[in-house]
Amino acid sequence: MALAPKIDVKSLDEKLENLYRLYSIKKKKELHDEESNQVINMRAMAAKEAPQEEWQMIIREKLVVKQVFARGGFGSVHKGIYDGQEVAVKVMEWGEDGRTKSEIASLKKDFRQEVSIWHKLDHPNITKYIGATTDIDSASVITEYLPGGTLKAFLIQHRKKKLPLKTVNRLAVDLAKGLSFLHSKNIVHRDVKTENVLLDKDGRVKIADFGVARLEASNLAEMTGYTGTPGYMAPEVLECKPYNRKCDVYSFGICLWEMYCCDMPYPNITFSELTSAVVYKNLRPEIPKQCPSSLAKVMKQCWDGEPKRRPEMEEVVSMLEAINTSNSAPSGCFSFFGSRR
């Protein structure tokens, strides 16, 4: 009777273990490939669903996003490089963490509105738009990088020493020209403030942030709603009444006062007190006695409580350019109580 061959149990176990390991690796790879394909398909579907508008024409491989230099409720702003050029990259996150579907939908709508307006603008006093990208849970707007920072930060730096009248006038003319251009295209910025104005390396003013900008409605009743930043908002906006481009003119008047005084309007006053005083008591920042009457006149006309009495921004440019700045001593602002003139 022949004996059964001797089985090497240890060797068999090792072979089975190796086969199982190979099988596990194969299954993991298949699962990973399947998940990757799902992500690719989702991205493709999202790209297919989104209209291929001009503002989407950007080559992602040429974009390098670097360090953050500003943050806000919308997301963050990074320095970056695009196609060898230094740029600013505004990244808006709309992942579902902590946000409702309606909030996400609103963010996406705001993004599309911002880039649909911004990408058509070409003017020396408007921050240059370069492109935009969209993803499943975020979007980015790429613009020229302006090393001078915000006008607000620049004014704060000169809070004690103040600026020469010639510098104030130059900054004001730049801002007025930018707004005049927007209005000529029937665009209302709706959030004009020194924080949304940037400076290039030569100190030239450039308007930025078109997140709430929109085309001016032919029917005033279609343009209402509480939009902007308290302190810069026109009375009609604070009251949620119909408004037009003249709300930007009002905001410019406040910015002009801020440029002259290098200080914040309405310190130590609550929002509710401010709203009531601006709307019902005609509260405005107090214009210093040493302010040239020609400049004070521009401020007063711009922040007039009646929108129809405010000048067009094209007129404001002419008024500012006519001011004599030859005697350019530093401006000053030593009183911050509200004026009711």
TrEMBL record:
This is Uncharacterized protein. Keywords: ATP-binding, Kinase, Nucleotide-binding, Transferase. GO terms for molecular function: ATP binding; protein serine/threonine kinase activity. It catalyses: L-threonyl-[protein] + ATP = O-phospho-L-threonyl-[protein] + ADP + H(+); L-seryl-[protein] + ATP = O-phospho-L-seryl-[protein] + ADP + H(+). It comes from Prunus persica. It comes from the Eukaryota. InterPro entries: Kinase-like_dom_sf, Prot_kinase_dom, Ser-Thr/Tyr_kinase_cat_dom, Ser/Thr_kinase_AS, Ser/Thr_Kinases-Pseudokinases. GO terms for biological process: signal transduction. PROSITE patterns: PROTEIN_KINASE_DOM (PS50011), PROTEIN_KINASE_ST (PS00108). It holds the Pfam family PK_Tyr_Ser-Thr.
